[in-house]
Amino acid sequence: MLEQEEQRDELLEKIEDLISRKRYAELRDLLLPLEAQDIAGLFMELDDKVPMVFRLLPKEQAAEVFVELDSEEQEVLIQSFSNTELKEVLDELYLDDAVDIVEEMPANVVKRILRHADPDVRKSINEILKYPDDCAGSIMTTEYVDLKATMTVEDALKRIRRTGPDKETINICYVIDEGRHLLGYLSIRTILLSEEDDVVGDIMDTHVISANTLDDQEDVAQTLNKYDFLALPIVDTENRLVGIVTVDDAMDVLQEEVTEDIEKMAAILPGDKPYLKTGVFETWRARTPWLMMLMLSATFTGMILTHFENSLAAVPILTSYIPMLSGTGGNSGTQASTAVIRALSLGEVRFSDLLRVVWKECRVALICGVCLAAANFVKMMVVDCWLLANPTVTPAVAAVVCCTLVGTVACAKLVGASLPILAEKIGFDPAVMASPFISTIVDALSLLIYFRFATWILGV
Amino acid sequence: MLEQEEQRDELLEKIEDLISRKRYAELRDLLLPLEAQDIAGLFMELDDKVPMVFRLLPKEQAAEVFVELDSEEQEVLIQSFSNTELKEVLDELYLDDAVDIVEEMPANVVKRILRHADPDVRKSINEILKYPDDCAGSIMTTEYVDLKATMTVEDALKRIRRTGPDKETINICYVIDEGRHLLGYLSIRTILLSEEDDVVGDIMDTHVISANTLDDQEDVAQTLNKYDFLALPIVDTENRLVGIVTVDDAMDVLQEEVTEDIEKMAAILPGDKPYLKTGVFETWRARTPWLMMLMLSATFTGMILTHFENSLAAVPILTSYIPMLSGTGGNSGTQASTAVIRALSLGEVRFSDLLRVVWKECRVALICGVCLAAANFVKMMVVDCWLLANPTVTPAVAAVVCCTLVGTVACAKLVGASLPILAEKIGFDPAVMASPFISTIVDALSLLIYFRFATWILGV
């Protein structure tokens, strides 16, 4: 693993030294044993020397490295390629990688790529580009091994040996009929452990789990994960096999979707670039909309406070507990909403569980609220009243604050747990109902509860 | 896919109907084509009928279903097994699954399992159990295919055919010497695409990326994901091959670690059970410590407010903007900390990037702050002053609030972006430096800034 920063820095120094001394053969030997992902990582630091170093790599490794680069670096490289070089790299790419690259390039680069791709490859790229982003069709590859049900294991092995080199995976082979309808699948293990004269149709597994080209890519990835598959076949509406999604791409989708969820939960509009690659204005555009909306919706809490101005003037010490109350309310709500949002996205909770969730959160809220209230009562009496010698902190004031705590925690947990589930039911993204959104609602609720108790107990 | 709730409910009804009419052969035929994961999902709803239905399944499928059950259901089943039944299930399990089960069971059940396992299996289970939780050794399996460098491809295929049925995967085979030192690896594809008389040592890839038994399981999973491997070899300190981690287990680890991170970011102590399976008291124990700590640390904001009591009494309208200011500050900080925490866990940001991150957040904060302040100024003048006809909302008051907004957003972004990086540097978990923690700090800072500007501009 090249994880260690020192190792990486050392290597970079060596590379730059070799470049400056024009020791290209040595440089090539240094890069040869490295994994494509690590070379791509090094390229990020080499800037304008990248095209030169790239040309040192053997064709196959060059293509592997190319796939791992950021789209900006890929563009720079393509611009520097001669037509022959471009064609060489394109020939080595897997189809789904080629599609990914085409999707990220500006129109003129796309035209140049398509002009130099094989006619077959061009056709397939255009096919896949037709599928909307985020659906199974857009992440699948059409380079899989297909077998006929009438083949013997010997025939199948011959076919795998012949077509295998161009396929993304040979670990799972799919059995189709004349009309390309999906009949079953076979793992390479089953094939190897069978007799040479066994017939594919007899030994294949006919209970195939497949997805549709238009299914959401996250569902496809979750299915692969759930069933521990190495690939999932993708079919069209008539059950004709059109491609497969492999486990490595599914893992990437899961990671991306989690990042998106986390961003939404923090009131950020999701982007698709790494943190340091996102420009200042892009980051600003992703963050301002929710900040603005939440800021303006805080108008309500302001109005509540203005409304109860006289109560606060009568017992000024009440003001100093407002941040604690709204903070604790916000945190309680965040805990509940986060737990429920994650459970929803892992498929552990459905809409039909709403009542179970609410009942659970009620009980948790009660115990949490009472514990916090008790701790807070002791703290107010010992620290605020006695140690800080503030005579306005009376047991009655402490009672108001503590009763509010119990009520706020209860409201927060209920709102936090139920809003995400309701949002999902009506087709909204539950991740948006997270911390910032819940806190804003809970802020207003906690103030209303606070002044209610203040009126009852203190009579203000 | 059995994702759809209706489909599942229909199936459940059918199963319960067949049970009540004692049509066991039909029930067996109904379950046979289903995937183990789906049967396990159905079992959750069948309660006390589970042992009976479980006995209907053929041995191999039964073991697959058993692995997918929750540990509580597994325990109930084991208690209901005769010794022969227990032995049958154990014989069918893959080693790493057996270890997972043993890890979750109470001591008396573990004893019973180990007593009925094969002596070889018992020894291997005990080996793996020695590794600490969360390390590569604890998630690896010792059931891999090993080859010798001197074998021909023909020999290798024979060995794979002979030992394959008991191995977790045959897709990647590992080449070792007499002392079990790892020399290289071969994919089944390379083997199949080579000539029968090629020698393993000549065609193997000798640039093996491996992990150590004591490496963190998350690092191992990230490595598998980064290099798109189907399995990663695990070696001891002397580079002797002791096991492999397969991609399906790596995906599970990544999902678990993300859930843990998300929980920590919401101030919840991470647990390892699904939401609805966690008891009320367990949930309470996971949530109270941070709530309590954050509540008590809000003492500081209270003290600041008490200190400036007279300023608030002089210009009471200032109070009504406190929730908006602390809310916006909290949200700004959350955005920055969440973005940085995720970037850290994906390896996009390191400690050496601290200055770049801070510089980026400074600029983002400035633009965000100015936009928010401008919007807020307009809103205060139009809504609060004019529409709500509040004469105390003067341009001077609006200026105080807007200047505070700019200052608060800047502080929040800087604190939010830098604390997680600093936390990681000193060996803390950056995920803990998220929303709730940052909000508490930013609350206090925003009040200090607020009263500073109030003193300057309003002279209170």
What's the architecture of the largest domain in chain A, going by CATH?
A: Orthogonal Bundle
The CATH H-level superfamily of the largest domain in chain A is: SLC41 divalent cation transporters, integral membrane domain
- Tell me the number of strands of chain A: 6
Structural class based on helices, strands and sheet pairing of chain A: mainly alpha
CATH topology-level fold name of the largest domain in chain A: Tetracycline Repressor, domain 2
Specify which chain pair forms the largest interface: A-B, 120 and 120 residues
Please report the first level of CATH classification, the CATH class of the largest domain in chain A: Mainly Alpha
User: What is the 3D form of chain A?
Assistant: elongated
How many domain modules of chain A? 3
Strand content of chain A: 5-15%
Quaternary organization: homodimer
- Count of helix runs of chain A: 23
Q: What integer value in Å does the Rg of chain A equal? A: 30 Å
Indicate the percent of residues in helices of chain A.
55-70%
Weakly predicted, low-confidence segments of chain A: none
* Nearest-integer average pLDDT of chain A: 89
- Strand and helix order of chain A: HHHHHHHHHHHEHEEHHEHEEHHHHHHHH
The largest sheet of chain A has its strands arranged as 1-2-3
Q: Main sheet of chain A?
A: 3 strands, mixed
What's the end-to-end separation of chain A, in Å? 67 Å
